[in-house]
Specification:
The complex is a heterodimer of chains A (494) and B (497). By secondary structure, chain A is mostly helical. Chain A has a domain of 201 residues. Chain A contains 22 helices and two strands. In chain A, strand 1 and strand 2 form a beta hairpin. In chain A, helix 1 runs antiparallel to helix 4. Chain A is globular and about 70 Å long. Chain B is mainly α and 497 residues long. Chain B has a two-stranded antiparallel ribbon with strand order 1-2. The chains are: A mainly alpha (494), B mainly alpha (497). Chains A and B meet through helix 5, helix 6 and helix 7 of A and helix 17, helix 18 and helix 20 of B.
Chain lengths: 494, 497
């Protein structure tokens, strides 16, 4: 198995299946397009599984490395590899792709081939981001992944989709263009290398480190998103079709956080320490302030979008207290949020498909007509609130524990998420699901179909499994996290 | 030189064989067309395409990879000239293919003159590309410009076209005047019009500094006009808009290559010693162009006008590479910078062809399809053409995996290498602004409902070529190394110090 270029397969199998799906053409062939997309997504997941089974947990080194010269003129290489940090996201992304294809199975009726192809191509590009070890390759995947999501939001989105799609695209582009300049600067500074691992090693004076850090921050803060550049996310989430929201929440938000681990921290460790107060402050604002903002939302998708921002605040908080517990907690939180936020958006999508409203007031008493659905929704709401035994708890608890050691007040503010998260999620749940049947729309609701059951069960398996037995997830990241922390504790200033 | 030494030297005609062939074919087409009765002018059309193909064959066959001069050092042939000429043929061939149906539907255009003028304009570009003497530069520019003035006005009864042509002619004549004036001053300062000799004299420290600077300013004004950069850009939107789309396609493609060639010939080959002066001027021109081009494009509702402003901004971006080659008097980095600019121009022309080609494709008799709203719902009408146009737009916006990204990237790395970080920041800021209006075209094609459902007809050859054009933009985007290396090699071959 190890002889196969697994990472290339993880990238190109979805992209080529996307192109094949595109070839089915018009909507007359949509059953075929759906089938091909599902097969492509499943094969795409299967080729990533050996990444886990064949993974060597004892070493922090890059594994499954592939290195081919690509653009010799600028010494850009097709250089792929994963460590304990990135490997999980490749698998998570490939898994989410299946969910997305299933989520759009009945709902999407126009331009089915293009819809599924868009997601498959995006899935491949996202895998490319996580697997890139060449700075320019990373950037190219990073930017190219904007195109499918822009089209998905714009074509299959809600009433304000055009505004949301433009805002999403331009916000992200703004950050990543500064990132591009930093990459070019590092390329010249390192004497003509785009290899990320080379950049990890070169000493850089403080002033340059600070600028590089800030340029990276511009790209990653938008992508995470961190307060105050988070405003594109609620718009994008609200307008995107369910599948778009799932990918956005489960995978795309992880890119910013991943960028911190791969670029900001190891390349500019001194500047990271120097600016850690800034990141901590922004993270706490995200956790506390955005938590309050989520509380007052009337639109369920917006509420979950804000809760995502708050949860991602936890991730950046965990990174910048520079302790193994905090960092692993943040990584667990990232993976777990992939399952939970994906599931929350899927649940809202299930209701939206029937009632065509995302407003909380249009619901009430859903449990009476959709008991099976209500049970699943309950589980994910609890997980979103961080209830023990769900994956949401593990990450949050680890980060809070680490921050107590770091600073009591930081931990105090961070722990407020336990209350706020519970408040906004469960209050929404109560208003939507419990009580008497709210109106005739709710009365006419039908419970979930077997396809929807399958999707929810898969996601529940992830959320519960990770909560009850996080060991398989944490053990692969140990060596990489330890190595990263050791690396950033050494100053790069000479 | 004494009288005895002066003797007539027969020029080496082989070096200019492609030009001679083109001239002969242009005259032949002119005469043959007199006897063509066919309203479609098929014979003229085929002969014109054959002339271009033949020139391409001759250029490739006579390409020696060496720098060789002829006609008393007025004409030079080198690898850069061969490469640029080859790109010119390709783009003119594509222009003629794409515009065939458009021209046939418009009786005013469907005359032999359209083809003859295209060939003379091509010849003008070839002369510009191979010029090694100020007078050759001027002859080339005039041959190109006069042909273009007439082509813009071919649609005699159209008021916008006539206005565009007048504007183009008056401003173009002024620019030619400025250029000539600059040349005469440089002649006054150094005593030579020969580009290689000029460089030699300037290296030797000869020349009157003040007159030289004045001459340089006038030269720059003339060149900036031909490139269409701010503040010499006024003609671009009006001409792009007013000209028949087939002619717009012509103006928007190949002449950019020729204008790039004269920048290299005059500024780099001739005046590299004065690089400190012209680099500063180029920086101003380029920042202004990116600013005006990108912001003005946002306000346009006509896609030809929008692409005109976009062309201004692209030429500005390309000039960034030309403006950052010589770093503190050090010429070691010029190949990196100039070959990036060359790559930028070549790929821009390819993208521009695809974009204007799509406009032509959607036009039909009595309907120009030149408003952005005419693209509404193109994805529903024909998803493949929409995909091609989308690739062109994303490429122009500089989004990977399309070739425009690598063009922008290679210029940016030259700018950063020269230490002009602020310039790179300005460039990416204006690119961000530019992304907005490219995205808007994609939005109109993909997010909006179709305004009309008239099926899009295209002949097989156009379908194939459009597809090839679109795929080239994507494939060179995935494998840009070959073309990058080709640009670098040809420039290294042509610039000798």
């Amino acid at each position: 198995m190890s002889g196969l270029p697994l990472l290339s397969l993880a990238i190109w199998v979805p992209i080529f299946s996307g192109l094949v799906v595109l070839l089915t053409g018009t909507d007359r062939n949509s059953p075929l397009a759906r089938m091909l997309a599902l097969i492509g997504a499943i094969v795409g997941l299967f080729v990533t599984l050996p990444l886990y089974s064949g993974f060597d947990t004892t070493t922090p080194a890059m594994q499954f490395v592939e290195l081919l010269p690509w653009i010799r003129r600028f010494n850009i290489n097709y250089h792929l590899g994963v460590d304990g940090i990135s490997m999980l996201f490749v698998i998570l992304n490939s898994f989410i792709t299946i969910i997305v294809v299933l989520a759009g199975w009945k709902v999407i009726e126009s331009k089915v081939a293009q819809y599924n192809a868009g997601f498959l191509i995006m899935s491949g590009l996202l895998n490319g981001i996580f697997a890139s070890l060449d700075g320019m390759l990373f950037y190219i995947f990073f930017e190219a992944s904007l195109i499918p999501l822009y089209l998905i939001i714009g074509v299959w989105g809600g009433p304000k989709r055009v505004y949301a799609a433009f805002k999403f695209f331009l916000f992200t582009l703004m950050g990543s263009l500064l990132f591009l300049i930093a990459l070019i600067y590092l390329y010249l500074y390192s004497g003509g290398s785009f290899a990320i691992q080379d950049w990890h090693q070169i000493p850089i004076p403080m002033v340059q480190q600070k600028w590089i850090f800030l340029a990276f921050l511009a790209a990653f803060a938008v992508k995470v998103p961190m307060w105050p550049v988070h405003t594109w996310l609620p718009d994008a989430h609200v307008e995107a079709p369910t599948g778009g929201s799932i990918v956005l929440a489960a995978i795309a938000l992880k890119l910013g956080a991943y960028g911190f681990l791969r670029f900001s921290l190891p390349i500019a460790p001194d500047a990271s320490h120097e600016f850690s107060w800034l990141i901590l402050a922004l993270s706490l604002i995200a956790v506390v302030y955005i938590g309050f903002v989520a509380l007052v939302q009337e639109d369920m998708k917006k509420l979950v979008a804000y809760s995502s921002i708050a949860h991602m605040g936890f991730v950046t908080l965990g990174f910048f207290i520079f302790s193994p517990l905090g960092m692993e907690g943040a990584l667990v939180q990232m993976v777990s949020h992939g399952f939970i936020a994906g599931a929350m958006f899927y649940c809202i999508g299930v209701m939206y498909d029937r009632v065509h409203s995302r407003m909380i007031v249009d619901y009430g008493g859903v449990v009476n007509t959709m008991p099976k659905f209500a049970a699943f929704f309950m589980l994910f709401a609890m997980a979103n609130a961080g209830l023990p035994a769900t994956s949401g708890f593990v990450g949050e608890f680890m980060v809070i524990l680490a921050s107590v050691k770091f600073n009591f007040w930081v931990a105090f503010a961070a722990a407020s998420t336990m209350i706020l998260g519970a408040a906004y999620t469960l209050w929404m749940y109560k208003r939507v699901v419990f009580g008497a049947v709210g109106n005739h729309h709710v009365e006419e609701l039908t419970d979930i179909t077997s396809r929807e059951f399958l999707v929810l069960a898969l996601l529940a398996l992830g959320a519960l499994g990770m909560g009850l037995y996080p060991q398989p997830f944490t053990e692969v990241m140990h060596s990489s996290v330890d190595e990263l922390l050791r690396h950033i504790s050494v100053s790069k200033i000479q | 030189m004494t009288l005895a030494e002066m003797q007539f030297v027969v020029p080496d005609l082989r070096i200019a064989s492609a030009e001679i062939f083109m001239l002969a074919m242009a005259c032949l087409v002119l005469i043959v067309d007199l006897f063509v009765k066919d309203r479609k002018r098929t014979v003229t059309y085929v002969l014109t395409q054959l002339a271009l193909l033949g020139s391409a064959v001759v250029t490739v066959a006579t390409s020696s990879g060496q720098v060789s001069y002829t006609f008393s050092n007025m004409f030079v042939s080198d690898l850069m000239a061969d490469l640029l000429k080859f790109m010119v043929y390709i783009s003119v061939i594509l222009v003629l293919f794409y515009s065939r149906a458009y021209v046939l539907e418009r009786p005013q255009l469907a005359k032999g003159e359209f083809y003859v003028l295209s060939l003379f304009a091509t010849l003008g570009m070839m002369v510009m590309i191979s010029a090694s003497h100020f007078l050759t530069v001027y002859i080339g520019i005039e041959l190109l410009s006069l042909s273009l003035y007439a082509m813009v006005a071919l649609n005699r009864d159209s008021i916008p076209a006539t206005e565009a042509s007048m504007k183009y002619f008056v401003l173009g004549a002024l620019a030619s005047g400025l250029l000539l004036y600059g040349m005469s001053m440089i002649y006054g300062a150094t005593g030579t019009l020969e580009i290689a000799a000029l460089a030699g004299r300037l290296f030797g420290g000869e020349g009157n500094g003040i007159i030289l600077s004045f001459g340089l300013v006038f030269l720059m004004a003339g060149i900036a006009f031909k490139l269409g950069v701010v503040p010499f850009h006024m003609w671009i939107p009006d001409v792009y808009h007013g000209a028949p789309t087939a002619v717009t396609l012509f103006i928007a493609s190949a002449p950019k290559l020729a204008a790039f060639a004269i920048v290299i010939r005059i500024l780099v080959n001739g005046l590299i010693v004065a690089s400190r002066d012209w680099q500063a001027m180029l920086i101003i021109l380029s920042v202004l162009s990116m600013a005006v081009g990108n912001f003005a494009a946002i306000a346009q509702t006509n896609i030809k006008r929008m692409l005109a402003y976009s062309a201004i901004s692209h030429m500005g971006f390309m000039l960034l590479g030309m403006a950052t080659g010589v770093i503190d008097g050090d010429v070691r980095f010029i190949f990196n910078a100039y070959s990036s600019s060359m790559f930028y121009v070549v790929t821009y022309v390819l993208t521009s062809l695809g974009a204007f080609g799509t406009i032509l494709l959607l036009s039909r008799a009595g309907f120009e399809s030149d408003e952005i709203s005419d693209f509404a719902g193109l994805n529903k009408r024909n998803s493949w053409y929409a995909a091609i146009m989308m690739m062109m737009m994303f490429s122009m916006a500089g989004i990977p995996f399309f070739v425009g990204f690598f063009a922008k990237f290679s210029v940016l790395q030259a700018v950063v290498a020269a230490g002009h970080l602020w310039l790179a920041l300005a460039a990416v800021f204006f690119s961000l602004v530019g992304a907005y209006y490219y995205l808007r075209v994609v939005k109109v094609m993909y997010f909006d409902a179709p305004a009309n459902a008239v099926p899009i007809k295209a002949s097989m050859d156009v379908k194939l070529l459009m597809s090839a054009n679109g795929l080239a933009v994507a494939l060179i985007g995935i494998f840009p190394n070959g073309l990058m290396m080709l640009c670098a090699t040809s420039l290294t071959n042509s610039i000798a110090f």
